[in-house]
Structures are given as structure tokens and as C-alpha cells.
Amino acid sequence: MSLKSQLYWKSALLRSGFAPSRAMIYGSCAVGRRYVSETSAAKNTAAGAVPPVFDAQNRRLFPQLDQMQPPSSVAYLKTLSKKELLSLAVIGCVTINKLFLELAIKVFPFVPMFLVKWLISSLYCGGDNFAEVRECGRSLQKRGISNMMLSLTIEDAEGTKNIDINHIVDETIKSIHEVLKPNILAQLETATDVNDIAPGYIALKPSALVSNPGQALLHFKDKAWKSHRDQLVTNCSAITQVIYDLNQELLKKYPSRKTPFFVSTIDAEKYDLQKGGVYELQRLLFKKFNPKDSPIVSCIGTWQLYLTDSASELQAEYARAEEEGYKLGVKLVRGAYIHSEAKRDTIIQPTKEASDLNYNNVMTTVIENLLEKGSKSSYGHLVVASHNYHSQMLATNLLKKKGLQSGKSNVVLAQLLGMADNVTYDLIKNHDAKNIIKYVPWGPPLETKDYLLRRLQENGDAVRADNGLPLLKSILKSLFSSTTEAKNV
Ligand SMILES: Cc1cc2nc3c(=O)[nH]c(=O)nc-3n(C[C@H](O)[C@H](O)[C@H](O)COP(=O)(O)OP(=O)(O)OC[C@H]3O[C@@H](n4cnc5c(N)ncnc54)[C@H](O)[C@@H]3O)c2cc1C
């Protein structure tokens, strides 16, 4: 790492109040000072202690953040139709306690497809054809969400389904032309500021784009697996090339645009696959599609901040990008595989609070760099992919501090379709966020059913906290208050 990069990271982290250890600056350890105990999450919760999730700098800048509660769902629920409220009430019932949730997870594969589609899919999935997904985009626009991160959900992480990978590539490219392009063009034509519209994203799951994905990613750098590596790079490049070409074309028409029109996004997989191949894959794509002199990037990768080495991984990538003359594109997530990572004790932060602190610190560093350096930043673009209200408010306040909540900042806030809608609603209505998108899975009904099941399994605790009894109470409140309002009209 060059001296310039070392100094940059050291001063950026110190500025954000995050005191890094020497090991961190030089790349062997992820987090320097911890503000939380290193006991297990369970022990922490039992103790009832709520350690701060913001570091000293952010607490000084935004003293109210530590105390802020996520907004109530009632205001958002009032905007929904009776049918949507009924679907949510069903979800509220099955997630009412851990026992019910576990039962729902077991029964879910046997629920008939028509019932899944009618009751649940429409809340969490964009549809199974382009017309339905375009319609989903239009209904999101009515809620103030200008764009989507599309994910064609045909997955084969275990390599057992024998799926047609060429079909995935073709359908994904078609979805750019048939959904994302008309969605953004219609808005650009009538926009007062072309930067008020967030980019349209394509999410690419590496394990869905190569045969024998587990082994192919683990052995990505082995000569013996070169044909698999080539297959994966070719597939991701084919999709990203379409995005790159469209970005260049639209930039000529809308030269005042500061952010990409379209972005290809590499999703993060389990730790071994990240280390084995996904980080390297992202790097190859950044080099090809995010040249330093281009005003906008076309590709972003993902870092999982629940990993103890995530900050140092990103730091090393930043240094490499600076030295080799390309831009990183960054999507920050906490990480989805906490329950299935084999080496959880060694690779994942010891507590939820440590994950939160790492997430907020790294996010602050990236945003401050983008705000300070603008188009000269080696971070080309950031997606804050989280349902966590505190993280989203921190990002929003950092942008507001510079008077920049629009797309000019190259910072976009993202949540999954159907999740944390109260947070999305609050950011739009009360904080004027225009830089906001939803991750929209779409595809064959059976595959989206698998996606829904995975969401329940991976995010079970969050689903239960967001839904269950609190959701049922909010639905009742929203029904009651809308009836009262109707009577008063
Ligand atoms: C747009 C979008 C794209 C996404 N893409 C990806 C992706 O490519 N790859 C991926 O892996 N995930 C992805 N996710 C999922 C994401 O990683 C999280 O699982 C999910 O969003 C929940 O985290 P949260 O930030 O919303 O916040 P919260 O609900 O505040 O945090 C929950 C998360 O905290 C962490 N956590 C919980 N308990 C502990 C503990 N005891 N110790 C340490 N950490 C703990 C876990 O990561 C858990 O998922 C994506 C999410 C979104 C919204």
C-alpha cells in the first residue's frame, strides 16, 4: 500500500473518531478500538446493556442518533390497500412468536403456489415477467422510490439444480432493456433535476452464473479451474458491458448527471467463496468497467461488515484501486449468512453491536471521502444496503450536513422490497430522501418461493421483530385511524 493511501485511511478513520490499530492500517486486523464488550451476543442481550452503535465523532455530530427509535409503521400502513393489509396480517400471525415462525418455515414449502403468489409474493417480489416488474417499478415511484435493484432469482449455490446459465444471462440482459431502461427514461424526460433519480441496478449472484459454483469460486485462482473462472468472468462482463454502453450513451444525452444511470452489482456470498473468488471477480470488473477518468462507474461490489476483516479488505481494495487507476463501487451490507457460516466464531464480529459499529464507521469513511473528493474519489458509488434505521439516518445526516441528499452525492439507500417499509417511508416523507431504491427479486414463481423461504430463514429474527405482534397492532391502529379519518371527512 502506498504511503499516500496509508495516510488517507489513517486520517479518514481518525476523523471519523475510529481509532485504528497499527495492524489495521497495515492490513492484518479489521477493527481497532472496540466500544463494546467482546462477549457473545446472547450474553450481551441477557445483560441488557445497549452499547453505543455510533463512534465519538458521529455522536458529537448527531447527538440524537443513539436515542432515535425506528419510526412506527402506522403512517406507512395507512397508504396500503385492504388486500395488502390482509397479506400483512397473515404474515403478522405466522411470525407472532419464534415457535410459529419455525413452524411457518417448515410448512412453507408445502403451501400451494397460488396462495403464496396471491398472499405473499406481491409484497416481496416484483413478479414473474417483465410487465409485472415494470408495474412494480411504477408503484414504487408513486411511493417516492425512483428505482430498483433487480435480482432474477434463479439460484444454484449447491450446484445441484442443473440450471441453464445462458438463460440467466439472457434474461438478465433483457431485464435491463425491458424494465430498467424504460423505468429511468420516463423519469429523466420529466425530471427537473436529472440527479434526483436513483440508478437502476442489476444484482448478480456469482453462484448463479457459473457451473459447479461452490468449487468454481473456491478455486477461482487455480489454473485447473480456469475454464470455470472464464465462464463466470465472461457472464458477468457480458451483463456489465450492456450497462456500461448504456451509461455512456445516456451520459451524452444528460451530461449534468453525476451518478450512473445503471449499475451492475456483485452480491456477496459466504466467506470462503468471497475469499476464494468473489473479491477477485469484483476487482476484475472494476478494472474493466470503472476507469478512473470516467465520471460514472458501471459496477459495484459488496462488503459484509459483520466480517471482522471487512474494514481491512475494503481498505486494501481502496489502496489497490488508487494505485492501479480505477474506481471501486461499494455496496455495504451487514451480512446475510450469520446462521450458516461454519467458522462464525472466528470470522464474524463478536456481537451485533460490534457489527453495527463497524458498519457505521466504514460507511462514514466512504461517505466523507465521496463528499470531500467528489468525482475524484476512488469510491465511485456507494449503496447503503440496510434496514437499520440508525445507519440510514446516519447516512442521511452526513449528506444533509453538506446539503446533498440528492443523487449528486453518489450515495444511495437501499432496502429489500417488503422489508423496513416504515424506514423507507420515513426517509422519503420526513427527510426528503430521493436517493432511495428497493431490491426487487423477480423470476419464476417456484424460484421466488425459494427466495421467500430463504428470507424467512436468514432474517427470521428481523422478520419477527418487524412483524408479529407489533405489525398486527400497527395494522389495527392504521385501520382504526383511517376509519376515523374517513368519518371526519
Ligand atoms: C439491498 C440489499 C442488498 C443485500 N445484498 C446482500 C448481499 O449481497 N450479501 C449478503 O450477505 N447480504 C445482503 N443483504 C442482506 C444484509 O446483509 C443483511 O442480512 C440484512 O439486511 C440485515 O441487516 P441490516 O443492515 O438490515 O440491519 P440489522 O437488522 O440492524 O442487523 C441484522 C444483521 O446484523 C448482524 N448481526 C446480528 N446479530 C449479530 C451478532 N450476534 N453478531 C454479529 N453480527 C450480528 C447480521 O449481519 C444480521 O443480518 C442485502 C440487503 C439489502 C437491503
UniProtKB/TrEMBL annotation:
An example molecular function term from Gene Ontology annotations: proline dehydrogenase activity
GO cellular component: mitochondrion
Gene3D superfamilies listed in its UniProt record: 3.20.20.220
Top EC group: oxidoreductase
EC numbers for this chain: 1.5.5.2
Annotated ranges, domain Proline dehydrogenase: 138-462
This protein's UniProt keywords: FAD, Flavoprotein, Oxidoreductase, Proline metabolism
UniProt catalytic activity: L-proline + a quinone = (S)-1-pyrroline-5-carboxylate + a quinol + H(+)
Cofactor: FAD
GO BP, one annotated term: L-proline catabolic process to L-glutamate
Source species, domain of life: Eukaryota
Similarity comment text for this entry: Belongs to the proline oxidase family.
Biological function: Converts proline to delta-1-pyrroline-5-carboxylate.
Protein name: Proline dehydrogenase
Organism for this UniProt entry: Torulaspora globosa
